[in-house]
Design a protein that fits this description.
- The chain is globular.
- About 0% of the residues have low confidence.
- Helices cover about 45% and strands about 15% of the residues.
- It has an eight-stranded parallel beta barrel with strand order 1-2-3-4-5-6-7-8, surrounded by six helices.
- It is α/β, with parallel strands linked by helices.
Length: about 260
């Protein structure tokens, strides 16, 4: 059984996202640790890429900032190694296929296994083209996380049947970012997924306040929050970890339901 399953074993999971190396490596690391200390069940680590097509303006700015600060994939692997001395919850990379290709697929997945990365999300990897990555993910025991979007329709069952770790349910069309309202029929999407698999579902894109977190947790097994957390790092800089910890507590479904 994947280590990711542990994130969902105590009920509804809270999954924060961080851009690695933003606003700097030390603050990034401290904020990730603060999230884990305050109840995060699984943490998504964004590996910066120069063309982050799934991201809205907040995460794009953080990605650009990290790259301008000289963040590299190897520096992130070293940061994860250091984090793993204290952080025991599952860690999942979120990045783009080109990052893995340019590093070398075999080397990337081998290093993930070595440092303790449990899964990887590649938003620009179509289901039909995943075979090469899937083979490596299975060899190195790093779950390749599937994404299901409001436009997936008849492909939902096909994608869900082969999913491992957890399924990332995209709440809305468009890119990441805070939304005032989420209007997609997510209950219907999750019901379609649950017909074919018992792999946990977590909803992301646009969740920023406790009310949204509670609503999404009533539909799915977990809630993913990215832009709202990156905004805290943007606003508070080196002081952000304290605010991140408080925010995680305020948003955690187990504290709301």
């Amino acid at each position: 059984m994947s280590n990711i399953a542990n994130a969902f074993k105590d009920g509804k999971a809270f999954i924060p996202f961080f851009t690695c190396g933003f606003p700097d490596m030390e603050t990034s690391k401290a904020a990730i640790k603060a999230a884990a200390d305050n109840g995060a069940d699984l943490i998504e680590l964004g590996v910066p890429f120069s063309d982050p097509t799934a991201e809205g303006t907040v995460i794009q700015r953080s990605t650009l900032g990290a790259l301008q600060n000289g963040v590299t994939t190897n520096k992130i692997f070293r940061m994860v190694e250091e984090l793993r001395l204290e952080v025991k919850v599952p860690l999942v990379f979120m990045t783009y296929a080109n990052v893995v290709f340019s590093y070398g697929g075999k080397d990337f997945f081998a290093r993930c296994q070595q440092v303790g990365i449990d899964g990887i999300i590649l938003p620009d990897l179509p289901y039909e083209e995943k075979e090469e990555f899937l083979t490596l993910s299975q060899k190195y025991n790093v779950d390749l996380i599937s994404m299901i979007a409001p436009t997936s329709h008849e492909r939902i069952a096909m994608i869900a049947r082969e999913a491992t770790g957890f399924i990332y349910v995209v709440s809305s069309l468009g890119v990441t970012g805070v939304r005032q309202e989420i209007t997609t029929n997510l209950s219907e999407m999750v019901a379609a997924i649950r017909k074919v698999t018992d792999v946990p579902c977590a909803i992301g894109f646009g969740i920023a306040n406790p009310d949204q977190s509670k609503k999404m947790a009533q539909i799915a097994d977990g809630v993913i929050v990215g832009s709202a957390i990156v905004k805290l790092l943007e606003k508070y800089g080196k002081d952000a970890p304290e605010y991140v910890g408080a925010y995680v507590r305020s948003m955690h479904p187990r504290n709301l339901l």
